[in-house]
Amino acid sequence: MSTSKTKENKYKIAIVPGDGIGSEVMEATISVLNELDIDFDYIYGEAGDACLEKTGTALPQETIDIVRNSDACLFGAAGETAADVIVKLRQEMKMFANLRPVKSYPNTNALSENIDFMIVRENTEGLYIADKEEFTDEGAIAKRVITREAEERIIDYAFQYAKDNGKSKVTGVHKANVLKKSDGLFKDIFYEVGEKYPDIEKEDFYVDATAMYLITQPENFEVIVTTNLFGDILSDEGAGLVGGLGLIPSANIGNDGALFEPVHGSAPDIAGKGIANPIAMMLSAVMMLRYLGENESADKLDSAILKVLTEAKVLTGDLSGSATTMEVADEIKNLIK
């Protein structure tokens, strides 16, 4: 999950601020990254609603090339064109794994103090493939594609993630009682792959039961692996467990690249006011640092964020504070120094 680079290297980071609050949380995050003892070379690319209006395309080829030729990408937010930007980038870069950590932090209205699990979501197939959806005389049809190759890859990734991160259990989530062929295949592959990891406990639940268990016993999960649509829905439920989307980072990982983004969207209602919570973007940067192998710096930034949340003196309005986006960034920079 990490590159082979060391601190002596300069990292080429693609920066795609996107729409709405994307540019604001990105500016705050870059100001924090610049306090770390790492040499970053930032290359900016355009994408999103404003880019579509300006250039006629939501995701120019130039931006795709910038992402492809970088060590990692930080993405801010996309508005109405999210499917044309993020989904296309995932497909172009073959980023097959979407990682959504769900972790409770202090002073964030989390449902429990002991929530800490990772949702590993398959990113390339399922119902989210645009050319598998079409109108018919009767209405519309969406084709759900589940392949052995893609599901073996994502399930193995989830088990390897658990092994590498000291997790003792992986939960497979499906609906094999109804989708007997497609999700039946997923369930079979889950246990087949799991045999390679004898020290890790395996369990599987139906997706509807999982939705309930996330509310009633969220502390019991460590790593969840599931298909595209189910992972998307459960990830937002997970965000609700720990204080909302303003605190949730994500990663999109492939063999040839990685993109890191907060999941809160462009939030046009507060864009331009300087009050957006930058912590999800900063936690996405923490995930990027770990991907790059910069674990010491990742720990330093993560600890600074935790201290700001614990002290609760400099928080944005969504966390019942009154600080601006850059005031939160300044506080975290001071802690890093």
From TrEMBL:
GO MF entries: 3-isopropylmalate dehydrogenase activity; isocitrate dehydrogenase (NAD+) activity; magnesium ion binding; NAD binding
Record carries keyword Transmembrane helix: no
Cross-referenced Gene3D superfamilies: Isopropylmalate Dehydrogenase
Cross-referenced InterPro entries: IsoCit/isopropylmalate_DH_CS, IsoPropMal-DH-like_dom, LEU3_arc
SMART domains: Iso_dh
Xref: PROSITE patterns: IDH_IMDH
Cofactor(s), by name: Mg(2+)
Domain Isopropylmalate dehydrogenase-like stretches: 12-332
Entry keyword annotation includes Magnesium: yes
SUPFAM superfamilies in the record: Isocitrate/Isopropylmalate dehydrogenase-like
Pfam family, any one: Iso_dh
This protein's UniProt keywords: Magnesium, Metal-binding, NAD, Oxidoreductase
GO biological process: coenzyme B biosynthetic process; isocitrate metabolic process; L-leucine biosynthetic process; tricarboxylic acid cycle
NCBIfam families: LEU3_arch (TIGR02088)
Family as reported in the entry's similarity comment: Belongs to the isocitrate and isopropylmalate dehydrogenases family.
PANTHER family in UniProt: DECARBOXYLATING DEHYDROGENASES-ISOCITRATE, ISOPROPYLMALATE, TARTRATE, ISOCITRATE DEHYDROGENASE [NAD] SUBUNIT ALPHA, MITOCHONDRIAL
The protein's name: NAD-dependent isocitrate dehydrogenase
Lineage: Archaea, Methanobacteriati, Methanobacteriota, Methanomada group, Methanobacteria
